[in-house]
Amino acid sequence: MHRFKSIMAMMFSVFFLVLSLSLTALAIYQFASALAGDSLVTGIVQAINTAVIALATFELGIGVGKEYTTPEDEHNMFNTVRRTVTRFVGVVTIALVLEGLIMVIKYSQLELAGNLYYPVAIISSASLLLVALGGFLGLSRRDSGPNSHDEGPDEHRRTEPRAD
Question: What pTM did the predictor assign?
Answer without folding.
Answer: 0.63
